[in-house]
Amino acid sequence: MSQQPAAPAPTSTSAVATVAKRRDWWRDAVIYQVYPRSFADSNGDGMGDLEGVRSRLPYLRDLGVDAVWLSPFYASPQADAGYDVADYRAVDPMFGNLLDADALIRDARELGLRIIVDLVPNHSSDQHEWFKRALREGPGSSLRDRYHFRPGKGANGELPPNDWESIFGGPAWTRVTEPDGTPGEWYLHLFAPEQPDFNWEHPAVGDEFRSVLRFWLDMGVDGFRIDVAHGLVKAAGLPDLGAHDQLKLLGNDVMPFFDQDGVHEIYRQWRLILDEYSGERIFVAEAWTPTVERTANYVRPDELHQAFNFQYLATEWDAEQLREVVDRTLEAMRPVGAPATWVLSNHDVTRHATRFANPPGLGTQIRTAGDREAGLRRARAATLLMLALPGSAYVYQGEELGLPDVVDLPDEVRQDPAYFRGAGQDGFRDGCRVPIPWTREGSSYGFGDGGSWLPQPDGWGELSVEAQQGVPGSTLELYRSALGIRRSRPDLGAGDAVEWLKAPEGVLAFRRGEFVCVANTTGESVTTPAYGRVLLANEEVTETDAGEAKLPADTTVWFTTA
Description:
This is Alpha-glucosidase. It is built from 14 helices and 21 strands.
């Protein structure tokens, strides 16, 4: 594989026609997340870009995914890796320009791939023109009404307006210096201070984002992943929460700044816009909610199409826990007619090859490498289990290579804003964002000619696409085989239920039509019935003359009864 491949030439339209004819494609789609700065660098500046993504689209087609979700590439000061947007209609120069975005979308369509882009409606950058004008114009500016500016508490307004805490640590409020040089009002930012929250009660905010939706839909994108979809609406009056260490409450309670019922009216308005466009465009919610049942509220028939299943992502490699979250997910989605989604990794959590390498109970951000061999084995088994479930699945770039988290990055190279703020997220998200390896050799293992914005570890090349491509049993070929089988079999992905089969302790077994999946989550080999011909397994499965199958530790096997 060359270090810098040429941009893909247009291919046969047969793949495009096949995709175009698939109705409700998103119900069983496999969607691949590209983190642009870490995927492929076309110009050698050490930073991934849109032309780099475009050059690697044939790889994604050959991998067998249905759609590509791009993390933000908008104009941004990059205080939070692009999730602080200064201009929603422009591409940041580090990633290219609008012509590059247009070429990427067009090439993806030619290759039979759909493009989903990130949308960040909860907050903007502090360099957004609205916010800069709000600061320049001072108290009373109408632009301040588009954000949450408030006077402080205390005799001289020296205390924050309420007790809300930032997800990145510290108060969720920052005091501004007014144009005359005096300390002034405070503004709300649930994340970094460079990310002021919009006030969605102001009609101009809704008008702006409806316009942004149309801009990118007209450009040809197939959908939007909505960042912090649960955060747009705040409780009336911005009441105190009355608690500290508020991060510990996330995911357990409805917070006054998250998962407020008012968000659903916004998404009903957005759905009307999306439905005006042909081609089955979709919305995907990043919605951290206390329960999967509340997540289901976001995917009612007149709102969004999918919502990330964070409850599943956070589940340990444990048969009982996995069965419980699968059942709850399917039961919650069935009444609203939405597909379940399944995901194991993304740009905000430790890669599952490392999470599963560590003892259970450590959460989704882990600082230790753990048992690399066991972690990879479990990650491969978990992937086959995920891809056997009904609904849509998400794959994070590099997981198809079995990449671990880079847990030993030096402090001086870290860029996660949460790392530099006390009492917030652990701030170790850089470990899952290290640029992925394409070749065995090179200054950045094929990522680009000029190094990489985060250092890649020694030995990264042996995990590269080049090292694994065509190698039987490699993680890359396991993914390709699994995605090929899934696409070719109608009993995979479709539907909203599984038929559980009797299985030994620590083992999951379920049937879906002529397909049976058996997952051994234990550290020991187990014997189960051989439910037919073996289609695929992450480890070698031995079948006996007695009609049984011996599964090694941490092994998932797919059978067909046909």
